Amino acid sequence: MKGAGDWWLRLMGRLKPGATIEQARTSLDVAFQQSALEHREARQAQRRATGQESIRALEPKDYPHLGAISGSQGEMNSREFFAKPLRLLFGVVALVLLIACANVANLLLVRASSRQKEIAVRLAMGASRWRLIRQLLTESVVLAMLGGGLGVLTALWIKDSLLGVSEWAGREMISLNPRLDLRVLAFTFGLSFLTGIVFGVVPALRATRLDLTPALKDSGRSSSFASRSLLSKSLVVAQVSLSLLLLIGAGLLVRTLINLQRVETGFNERNLLLFSVDPSLLGYKDDRLRALYLQLFQHIEAVPGVRSATFSRLPLLSHASSAGTFDRPGAKAAPDGTVPPTGEVYYHNVRENFFATMEIPLLLGRTFTAQDDLHAPKVVVVNQTFAREYFPEENPIGKRFSFDVAKPDPIEIIGLVKDAKYTSQREETPATMYRSWLQTPGATDSMTFEVRTAGDPKASVATIRQAVREVEANLPLNNIKTQIEQADETLSMERLFAKLMSLFGVLAQQLASIGLYGVMAYSVSRRTQEIGIRMALGADRARVLKMILRQGMALTLIGVALGVAGAYALTKYLESLTSMLFGVKPRDPLTFGVAVALLTIVALVACFVPARRATKVNPVEALRYE
Question: Where are the domains of the chain?
């Protein structure tokens, strides 16, 4: 326990055979609550001894509880970290699969139409409809299984490359362990079999529902042609609407990534090199540790190209933070009459030139000096959010507070600096206090150096490493990166899903355009005679082109309308995942408009090719068609 309310403990244990995590948590929860309540009672006694207001008594419903997780999930529970995003990604992949299956179903419908006479002959010779359906289903299942097998072979080929996505999502991605095993193979082939049945049964039923007399004629058409054409068009509309959903989702995530990259961090990220050291592993502590750091600064700042060097306990924008509570003298009473004894604050242990090196502007007062050590009164520098929350409309300079109720007012605020992002670009800047490393020697065993250079920071790595060796040859430099790279790591999840959603969105758009092209090309081939008659009667090529384009774009616009309606409804789900969006609303008009325009343009190109082919029909040959 450190100070008032600043304590934590992580325990690890092995369960007995047959025991569950919940049983262990329940049995330990009682001891944990007892410890927490004893600590709270000790604080009450300290406040009474110093004449301060008592803190509010806890109701049973407010008692703290012990949390427990499985060790197989990792210390930071990476599986939970990826759970919601992976469910979203699974849904995206399912939509792409639906679009692909709709394309295959359309191809099966076209193929069945071309085999119309063959099927009619088989039925006329006594073949049962069920037998023909089984044959067609067998063909579709074989096609699906071949596709699944090809997918498995592709996965085997690229599975090692899948680890490359860790560059998109950071080191946590490694915990996903992408590999092929019997479960993955069983799921793949099971899904392939199921899709072969589901998306093959309708074309099989349509193909065997024939009027034999016109079907057996050379120039006849099946009476089911119109309904088959309607089904093909419906599948195209579904493809367009689903692909629009994915494009809108991709647009929202891309805009989120762009907004996060444009966030004002409050300090200068350029020309800044980071690396961490841990001299405590070599036995350095107390005065030896302080002397080592001073020598390191002296040698590093002497490196050509280095403008200044500082350090902090934790790097900025690293998803890491230190936080605690403090007592606020003179706090106003709450409506229930109790006085809130503590405030919550993030703290940062830094060198005295930290603000100058990081280029965080000083607004009031002063920053630390080398004289702010253990022999001097304790001082801190706070940010704007701290001053706004705890000293509204007041000058915070000279204000005092304490980390311990037994020792009121030992810490003085000497400076106010501009807000700077602490853990990530997404989170609001918290109330933060900066403490001098000379006054917090117990928190300097391992530190992150921030080195400001005149040029490319990576160009100075070798010389800085040599400068460190001159001081301590056995001290390694860890996590060497630029501040820009460090900031990019905090956006790893956003970058991963923006790229994946964009990839799947473009893939879905291409599949939808291929499907639209196929339906329009088939429609043109079926209407060759009609087009020839129209041109023979005086219709010009421009009118024929407009007729075909109108048909294709009508399907596109219907799909777009359904897709926009579906996306508008599904944004309620995105609203539940607000952590995935930043600076953009789920129903953002700009994203919707760009996605619709992009899909419409691609669809127009897909329709134009068969429409242009229709304008080149020779009326004489068309009249002899079929």
Answer: 90-262+492-623, 272-489
- The pLDDT, as a whole number, for residue 4 is 39
Separation of CA 38 from chain center? 42
Per the listing, tokens 């990839």 go with 503
What's residue 5's pLDDT? 44
Among candidates 461, 435, 431, which has minimal Cα distance to 449? Answer: 461
Tell me if 322 sits within 8 A of 314, measured CB to CB: yes
Residues 238 and 566: their CA atoms lie apart, in Å, by 11
Name residue, tokens 């996590």: 479
The set of residues, in sequence order, having a beta carbon less than 8 Å from that of 476 and lying 6+ positions away, is: 277
Would you state the structure tokens that stand for residue 565, as one six-digit string? 């309606």
Neighbours of 73 (CB within 10 A): 13
- Per the listing, tokens 């691609």 go with 602
Where do the DSSP E strands lie in 196-298? 272-277
How far is Cα 105 from Cα 487, in angstroms, rounded to an integer? Answer: 46
Integer Rg of the chain from CA? 34
Written as six digits, the tokens of 533 are: 């008659």
Structure tokens at 399: 């204000």
Q: Model confidence over 5-55: pLDDT tens digits?
A: 445 666 778 888 888 878 887 888 777 777 777 777 776 676 666 555 555
Rounded CA separation 367/378 (Å): 13
Q: What is the pTM of this model?
A: 0.76
How many Å apart are CA 34 and CA 63, to the nearest integer? 10
Cα(229)–Cα(237) distance, rounded to whole angstroms? 12
Residues 612/545, Cβ–Cβ less than 8 Å? yes
Max distance between CA atoms of the chain, in angstroms, equals 109
Give the SS3 label for residue 582: coil
Q: Which residues of the chain carry a pLDDT beneath 50? A: 1-6, 74-76, 219-220, 222-224
Q: What's the pLDDT at 253?
A: 87
Q: Where are the alpha helices (DSSP H) in 537-618?
A: 541-576, 589-615
Give the per-residue pLDDT at 223: 45
At 565, is the secondary structure helix, strand, or coil? helix
The two counts, helices (H) then strands (E), for the chain are: 18, 11
Cite the DSSP H helix spans in 325-381.
354-358
